[in-house]
Design brief:
Layout: E1 33-39, E2 44-50, E3 64-70, H1 75-84, H2 89-96, E4 103-107, E5 110-119, E6 127-135, E7 139-144, H3 152-160, H4 170-198, H5 210-229, H6 231-241, H7 253-316, H8 331-352
């Protein structure tokens, strides 16, 4: 295993000497912690703080099982849990590689889904967390990169027997978990929408700086990422619709159609926000261009007013012997009066032309 620094985040090096070694590419803020729910319609058992040694092959137990793992380090613990449950090596590395793009795939009769969930109180503090699912007929294992809890409401329903969770199979549990993640997307997109609606570019002319443009580009990148993150969920729902996932009960297919609609809604919201961001960006450049035009107009007015002054000064600055005005008693005053009159006339003309 790779003993990388706890605060580092590395790209995966696939040219490793030992094919049985696995590398966690994220930040090691959270240590391994596992929680297991075993449940049926009339029964529920919750086990907290499970160590890897106490986790057995979930597919061999009769009831529905949900194992939730917080923290993807140390790698040895994740590998042990996965190997105990016959999870493919490719899926293990995808679980540990947080730079892995979201995807849905089948491995030896098990289904693997890795996605990114958005966690944010506001658009300035958004965090994208990788969550991976491995699931089969009667078990589901979820791997969360962070300690953030998206599923506390699901645990409460299981403990209290509220709703249909304990009455239905693992497929319904997976639907509720994915629905929760979709709700995180909607909450995050609402935060973006509120922030953009409050951002009045025309009222920010004095503060329309490159920092504002960088913020708009940051929002654009993050919203594009959210749109991309829905792709594996949509692919999964399409597979369910085509009967390519055997453990999904026909009576529960309607819930995955609902997920498909939610994906479309997220995509439409993202497109709308991206269009708004593009409009804000264009308006930013228009404001910047207008400010530059105003500066150039001011400089042009000042330069134009000084042209006749420079002309007069240039003439009387020549060293000719015969310039009668130089000997005139009132020549100096006359020059200033002439300059003052010309400048005043030019200012009046510029004012009528609405240059200022």
């Amino acid at each position: 295993m790779n003993n990388q620094d706890k605060n580092s985040r590395n790209l995966l090096n696939r040219k490793k000497r030992d094919p049985n070694s696995f590398i966690f590419t994220g930040k090691r803020h959270y240590e391994f912690d596992a929680q297991l729910f075993e449940y049926s319609k009339t029964y529920v058992n919750e086990t907290k703080n499970l160590s890897p040694n106490k986790i057995t092959d979930l597919s061999q137990k009769p009831n529905n099982k949900w194992l939730n793992v917080h923290g993807l380090s140390p790698e040895e613990n994740i590998v042990q849990v996965c190997r105990t449950n016959n999870i493919h090596d490719l899926a293990i590395q995808d679980i540990l590689d947080i730079n892995q793009r979201p995807k849905f795939q089948e491995f030896d009769g098990q289904f693997f889904l890795t996605i990114k969930s958005a966690v944010s109180q506001n658009v300035e503090q958004i965090i994208f967390e990788q969550i991976s699912f491995v699931f089969g007929k009667n078990f589901l294992i979820s791997f969360q990169e962070h300690k953030s809890d998206h599923f506390e409401h699901i645990r409460f329903r299981l403990r209290e027997g509220i709703g249909a969770l304990r009455e239905r199979g693992i497929d319904y549990l997976l639907f509720v978990m994915l629905e929760s993640i979709m709700d995180n997307y909607f909450s995050t997109l609402r935060n973006y929408e509120d922030t953009l609606n409050q951002m009045k570019i025309l009222e920010l002319q004095d503060t329309a700086t490159p920092t504002l443009l960088a913020k708009l580009e940051k929002y654009k990148k993050e919203i594009t990422s959210i749109k991309r993150f829905t792709i594996p969920i949509r692919d999964f729902t399409i597979s369910a619709e085509r009967d390519l996932i055997s453990f999904i009960e026909p009576s529960n297919k309607k819930y995955f159609y609902e997920l498909q609609d939610l994906c479309l809604m997220v995509n439409e919201t993202c497109d709308s926000l991206l269009s708004l961001l593009e409009s804000k960006t264009n308006l930013f450049f228009s404001v910047q261009s207008h400010k530059m035009n105003q500066v150039m107009k001011t400089l042009t007015i000042v330069s134009t007013i000084f042209i006749p002054m420079t002309f007069v000064a240039g003439i009387y600055g020549m060293n000719f012997d015969y310039m009668p005005e130089l000997k005139w008693k009132f020549g100096y005053a006359a020059v200033w009066i002439f300059i003052g009159l010309v400048s005043t006339v030019m200012l009046i003309i510029f004012k009528r032309m609405k240059w200022f």
